[in-house]
């Protein structure tokens, strides 16, 4: 036993001890994606030259997709030293003073910003200051698999929107029995175009010049979205496309464009390198994105990554040296050479390589020309087209509502293409969200600013008063005790003290604090602002819009409905299935212990794991379940459900997932079944009762206490589903459960006050439901002890 | 009561035959159920052993269910590609700290409720029970702010310190067990001059060893599988536990299913093995919660 303890201690020490003694900086955002391997070599070269160790980490995704991690790091004053940062989120962080402005360093070290592409610099600046140093740029172009095109008689890529639509439809063939595409001509958002591209092609602006008004419902945007929906329907509809996208691998040898299952796509120029590395003999061509009409100037847009230094970074000087190195021509050479070596190691000695576009125009032109000299003609031509397009590229507006804007253009397409609403309706709803985000930033409500410290002090005082009240009750009660009993009473309290302390500090105190916060606006980076009932009117209120009465926060009601769906359907189904299993197990079959174990195992599987397992199982195209369901359903003229790719089937899929884990309930039923007296059954059998009658009149009534217990427990659990929904997010907010929405409000949109209000609503709902359940059950529960 | 027609029909078939038929039917149903329940796990292991190309190949059932070639190398590659060992060590650390806290504190608190009389004891116990109903999200934001002020964000502390204040569910469970230990043992120890702590440690606690083991297992598995806590508090790669590390892997390499599933298998297998070895304690623990509501 002691040796085991020693062993554990050693393990713990080992686990906690890996910290370098040498100077080090922490870098976030870089992933070991196949086309970034070169960058890692450049990092290692930096380590060799300067002796500064670079710890690379990427919690929760690439630097732009999950601001939650970065925010929590900045708030807790333990941010990384440098972040490889998706530029379009600059507007989210710069106005909040989360990044250190770099102008002084740029001037001091004579860095010439005019050498950088204007699209890249534009996306890195806010109110005249530069917050990021761009690393790379990209642009979006049309890739065509010419073999597929020529087979159907097309000799060249499409040049206009009409041609694109025609060709996409003509090239698509759908295999109905297998419920999958044999060849998909084009999907409006497969790849990397987004509604942004189509809207910019029509001249949309997205945000007004002064940055305060959202122009999401401008006619250009609506028209662009209309077109995307038309395209999506022309090739078979959003559901099928989603199933296709869900089961395809975006990179690697399984990429459908490389394997000839996708004829055309608009994607970033970096795809050229994928083709070069993985399938250089692919017969492809690159063209400008098809314009709405003939003769319009070329339009594309650029994004890319930059280096930023968070405020409060602990090693800003080392971080700046690192940034300067990574943006130097030498580093780009090191990187390109390493990338070539990597390509050769995975695809053979004749592997080809197309470099990234460096954000610095001077460096880029040198690097690109050098490394594309010896490429086959089609790659060189394609690269030249991309290079020439760079000056025409738009960039995403830098605005504090940038993440709402991104969500808006993404969700609008999903809603409209699934025909949940018309394009205009979808955009109107989403414009409101962008506008309110802008309003929250530019026109803050005039509420008194509170000090978080004072609130904490106030809560502490309240808690102390509660303690005082409890103590006086206790002392008063002690009066009736004898001296010996009093000693015992104090002892008892001493034993229970740890829990009581924890209860005050971790439960009651925070609950009161949370209640106070529910009346404020608090994004942690600024002091909380008292706004009275605003959070509550936002949650429960309605307002009048052009389409009639609308809820102020439709997502709140959606999340409530999603959660209640699980409570209404998931809980009873789970209870019935587990009862069935328990009844089977209760028949004294041989090996009952083994069966019971096997049914319980899914309960042990981590939630993360079970989410991923069921994601695979219920995959519409390659999933196990649909493999069996699709052919018989097809013969009946129906289609197999698309599960997590379909808004109507995502929640039933979730119910399947949760029912899989009903083993705990089985055991409780078993315990209950085993308390049932046998003599009642024997008497019933003598009287000739059928099994069903025995069940209805003996088993069920005697089980009612267990039914109540499982019902209450199941309900509470259904109101708190989080992990699986967070990982599996279904389309059109169909798996946006209440707790997930709460989490997003708190840690993605930085609205702690609103999140606290939501938490209290959840608490009241839970309490109300439990009380209602207990009350209702009095009529039908039968306790054998009574 | 006069016998009806169905009864005489039943009497025509001998009871032993009827029992055999229903037993076969039961076995068949149970087997079918086990197949359905085990199938996802089989899918997990099988996909972890497939190559990238085979994951999408659903031409025939055998292509779906049998990996060929069997890529055992996937496991090694996952360990190479992501800091799997570090994640594993972190998860172990958290499990150890949580289990230690729970085992030391919860029995103490439960003892205080079970063996002593004091004013307000039952009210406080009722409050303890009702905290099980409070959704953790109600306190999530303020608790996060508290830990942030203390500078504990991005450390392990918020993930194990709360366990050292007791977990209501375990306290409840242990109290029930304590109530079942006869008071004569306590009194005998007291007569022999043992103080309450000594009585607790040497006499009463060993009586409920199965319950202690049960809560160790529950807490251990819970800490191993915990996702939301690390999601909120940990954001450095070297400090991530397995659940978070795997989700991070999924977000960065979402298309590499075989590797992802290999990682998931390695996360799930220890739990399943542990469960097979100690299932009796799990079942006892759950059974008791159902009986004593």
Characterization of the model:
The complex is a heterodimer of chains A (786) and B (293). Chain A is an alpha+beta fold and 786 residues long. A five-stranded mixed β-sheet of chain A has the order 2-1-3-14-6. A three-stranded antiparallel β-sheet of chain A has the order 11-8-12. In chain A, strands 4-5 form a two-stranded antiparallel sheet. In chain A, a hairpin with a 7-residue loop joins strand 17 and strand 18. In chain A, helix 17 runs antiparallel to helix 18, helix 19 runs antiparallel to helix 20 (483-517) and helix 31 (738-747) runs antiparallel to helix 32 (752-777). The longest helix of chain A is centred in the middle third of the chain and has 35 residues, at 483-517. Chain A is globular and about 90 Å long. The two termini of chain A are 48 Å apart. By secondary structure, chain B is mainly alpha-helical. Chain B folds into two domains: 3-48; 81-288, MetI-like (MetI-like fold, Orthogonal Bundle), CATH 1.10.3720.10. Helix content of chain B is 76%, strand content 0%. Chain B contains 16 helices and no strands. Chain B has helices at residues 5-12, 15-48, 52-55, 61-65, 73-81, 84-115, 121-131, 137-150, 157-160, 168-179, 183-191, 196-207, 209-225, 228-233, 242-252, 257-291. At the A-B interface, helix 1, strand 2, helix 3, helix 19 and helix 20 of A face helix 2, helix 3, helix 6, helix 7 and helix 8 of B.
Distinctive features:
heterodimer, A: 786 residues, alpha+beta, 5-stranded mixed β-sheet, 3-stranded antiparallel β-sheet, globular, B: 293 residues, mainly alpha, MetI-like fold, 2 domains, 16 helices
């Amino acid at each position: 036993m002691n040796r085991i303890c020693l062993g554990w201690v050693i393990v713990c020490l080992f686990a906690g001890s890996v910290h370098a003694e040498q100077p080090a900086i922490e870098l976030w955002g870089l992933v070991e994606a196949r086309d970034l391997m070169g960058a890692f070599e450049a990092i290692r070269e930096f380590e060799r030259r300067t002796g500064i160790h670079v710890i690379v980490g990427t919690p929760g995704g690439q630097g732009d997709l999950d601001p939650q991690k970065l925010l929590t790091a900045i708030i807790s004053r333990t941010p990384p030293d440098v972040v490889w940062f998706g530029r379009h989120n600059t507007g989210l962080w710069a106005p909040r003073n989360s990044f250190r402005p770099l102008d002084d360093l740029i001037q001091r070290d004579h860095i010439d910003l005019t050498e950088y592409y204007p699209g890249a610099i534009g996306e890195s600046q806010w109110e005249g200051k530069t917050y990021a140093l761009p690393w790379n740029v990209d642009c979006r172009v049309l890739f065509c698999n010419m073999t597929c095109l020529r087979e159907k008689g097309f000799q060249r890529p499409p040049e206009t929107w009409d041609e694109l639509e025609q060709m996409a439809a003509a090239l698509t063939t759908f295999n109905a029995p297998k419920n999958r595409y044999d060849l998909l001509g084009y999907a409006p958002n497969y790849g990397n175009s987004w509604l942004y591209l189509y809207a910019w092609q029509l001249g949309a602006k997205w945000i007004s010049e002064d940055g305060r008004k959202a122009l999401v419902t401008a006619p250009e945007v609506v028209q662009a979205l209309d077109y995307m929906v038309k395209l999506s329907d022309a090739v078979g509809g959003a559901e099928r496309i989603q199933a296709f996208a869900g089961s395809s691998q975006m990179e690697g040898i399984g990429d459908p464009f490389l394997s000839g299952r996708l004829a055309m796509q608009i994607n970033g120029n970096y795809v050229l390198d994928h083709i070069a590395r993985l399938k250089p003999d692919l017969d492809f061509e690159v063209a400008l994105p098809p314009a709405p009409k003939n003769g319009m100037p070329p339009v594309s847009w650029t994004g890319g990554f930059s280096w930023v230094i968070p405020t409060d970074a602990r090693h800003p000087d080392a971080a700046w040296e690192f940034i300067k190195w990574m943006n130097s021509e030498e580093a780009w050479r090191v990187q390109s050479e390493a990338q070539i070596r990597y390509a050769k190691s995975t695809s053979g000695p004749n592997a080809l390589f197309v470099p990234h576009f460096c954000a610095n125009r001077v460096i880029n032109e040198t690097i690109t020309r050098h490394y594309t000299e010896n490429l086959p003609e089609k790659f060189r031509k394609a690269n030249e087209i991309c290079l020439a397009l760079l000056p025409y590229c738009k960039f995403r507006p830098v605005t504090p509502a940038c993440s709402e804007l991104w969500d808006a253009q993404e969700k609008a397409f999903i809603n409209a293409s699934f025909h949940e609403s018309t394009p205009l309706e979808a955009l109107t709803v989403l414009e409101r969200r962008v506008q309110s985000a802008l309003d929250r930033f530019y026109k803050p409500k005039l509420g008194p600013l509170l000090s978080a410290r004072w609130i904490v002090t106030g809560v502490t005082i309240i808690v102390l008063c509660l303690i005082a009240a409890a103590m006086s009750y206790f002392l008063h009660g002690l009066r009736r005790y004898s001296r010996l009993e009093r000693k015992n009473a104090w002892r008892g309290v001493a034993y229970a003290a740890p829990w009581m302390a924890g209860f005050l500090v971790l439960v009651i105190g925070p609950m009161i604090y949370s209640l106070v916060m529910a009346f404020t606006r608090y994004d942690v980076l600024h002091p909380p602002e008292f706004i009275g009932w605003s959070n509550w009117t936002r949650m429960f209120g309605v307002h009048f819009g052009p389409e009639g009465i609308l809820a102020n926060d439709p997502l709140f009601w959606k999340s409530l409905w999603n959660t209640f769906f699980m409570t209404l359907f998931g809980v009873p189904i789970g209870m019935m299935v587990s009862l069935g299993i328990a009844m089977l197990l209760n028949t004294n079959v041989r090996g009952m212990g083994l069966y019971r174990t096997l049914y319980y195992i899914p309960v042990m599987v981590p939630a993360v794991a079970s989410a991923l397992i069921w994601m695979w199982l219920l995959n519409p195209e390659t999933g196990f379940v649909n493999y069996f369901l699709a052919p018989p359903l097809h013969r009946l003229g129906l289609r197999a459900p698309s599960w997590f790719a379909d808004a109507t089937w995502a929640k039933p899929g979730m119910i399947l997932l949760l029912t899989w884990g009903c083993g705990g309930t089985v055991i409780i039923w078993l315990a209950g079944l085993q308390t049932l007296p046998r003599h009642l059954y024997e008497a019933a059998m003598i009287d000739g009762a059928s099994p069903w009658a025995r069940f209805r009149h003996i088993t069920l009534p005697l089980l009612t206490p267990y039914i109540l217990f499982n019902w209450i427990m199941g309900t509470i659990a259904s109101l708190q589903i989080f992990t699986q929904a967070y990982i599996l997010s279904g389309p059109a907010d169909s798996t946006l459960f209440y707790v997930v929405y709460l989490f997003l409000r708190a840690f993605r949109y930085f609205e702690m006050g609103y999140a606290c209000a939501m938490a209290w609503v959840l608490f009241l709902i839970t309490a109300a439901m439990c009380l209602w359940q207990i009350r209702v059950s009095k009529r039908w529960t039968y306790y054998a002890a009574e | 009561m006069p016998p009806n027609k169905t009864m005489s029909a039943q009497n025509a078939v001998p009871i032993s035959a009827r029992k055999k038929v229903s037993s076969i039917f039961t076995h068949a149903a149970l087997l079918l159920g086990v197949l359905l329940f085990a199938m996802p796990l089989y899918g997990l292991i099988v996909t972890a052993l497939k190559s990238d190309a085979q994951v999408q190949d659903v031409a025939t059932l055998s292509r779906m269910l049998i990996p060929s070639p069997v890529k055992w190398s996937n496991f090694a590659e996952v360990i190479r590609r992501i800091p799997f060992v570090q994640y594993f060590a972190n998860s172990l650390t958290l499990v150890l700290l949580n289990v230690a806290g729970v085992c030391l504190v919860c029995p103490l608190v439960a003892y205080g409720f079970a063996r002593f009389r004091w004013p307000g004891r039952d009210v406080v116990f009722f409050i303890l029970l009702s905290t099980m109903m409070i959704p953790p999200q109600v306190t999530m934001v303020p608790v996060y702010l508290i830990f942030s002020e203390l500078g504990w964000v991005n450390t392990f502390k918020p993930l194990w310190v709360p366990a050292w204040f007791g977990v209501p569910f375990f306290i409840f469970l242990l109290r029930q067990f304590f109530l079942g230990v006869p008071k004569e043992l306590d009194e005998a120890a007291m007569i022999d001059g043992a103080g309450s702590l000594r009585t607790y440690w040497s006499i009463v606690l060993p009586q409920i060893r199965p319950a202690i083991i049960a809560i160790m297992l529950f807490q251990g598995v819970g800490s191993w599988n915990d996702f939301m806590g690390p999601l909120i508090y940990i954001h450095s790669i070297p400090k991530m536990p397995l659940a978070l590390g795997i989700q991070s892997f999924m977000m960065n390499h979402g298309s590499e299913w075989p590797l992802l599933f290999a990682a998931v298998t390695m996360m799930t297998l220890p739990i399943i093995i542990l469960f097979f070895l100690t299932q009796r304690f799990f079942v006892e623990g759950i059974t008791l919660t159902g009986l004593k509501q």
